[in-house]
Amino acid sequence: MAPTRDEKLQAIISQRSRSLIKLVSLVKKDIETKLMDRLHSMGYENFKMGDMVCLANVQLDGTINNELAKKAKITKQAMSKVVKSLETEGYIYTRKHETDNRASVIYLTDRGKDLAITAFECVREIQADYVSIIGEDDSEKLREILTKLLTKLDML
């Protein structure tokens, strides 16, 4: 006899806690919470995790919005909103592109550079906390596995 709908659902529910998606999601949430707590305590109260998609991809010599959106894997419209928010907060500034009048080049302000440096240092601390929990060998294995997965998904 085939399992009932409730039996199928119960089997799924019993496996939820070991779902790869759930585990990765929980680690991501933990990283984001710890990072935001640290940044907010350091004076970056108006910075939001969603702003990281821009901050993490701006190059020193500037980056156009379309390139930021492509790197962040979000729409140009969504990136434009993030850019406007970060510009309002004083983390970035824009200038018209030298050869393409339709495009603006986005640059980090000194405040944005300080935030990027601070965020990287916080991420390094969070990562060190994780390494202290699972060990250097397992951390390296995890890095290799995630790199392999993201490479196969063409996301690196």
From TrEMBL:
<keyword id="KW-0804">Transcription</keyword>
<keyword id="KW-0805">Transcription regulation</keyword>
<feature type="domain" description="HTH marR-type">
    <location>
        <begin position="17"/>
        <end position="151"/>
    </location>
</feature>
<dbReference type="InterPro" id="IPR036388">
    <property type="entry name" value="WH-like_DNA-bd_sf"/>
</dbReference>
<protein>
    <submittedName>
        <fullName>MarR family winged helix-turn-helix transcriptional regulator</fullName>
    </submittedName>
</protein>
<dbReference type="InterPro" id="IPR000835">
    <property type="entry name" value="HTH_MarR-typ"/>
</dbReference>
<dbReference type="InterPro" id="IPR036390">
    <property type="entry name" value="WH_DNA-bd_sf"/>
</dbReference>
<dbReference type="Pfam" id="PF01047">
    <property type="entry name" value="MarR"/>
</dbReference>
<keyword id="KW-0238">DNA-binding</keyword>
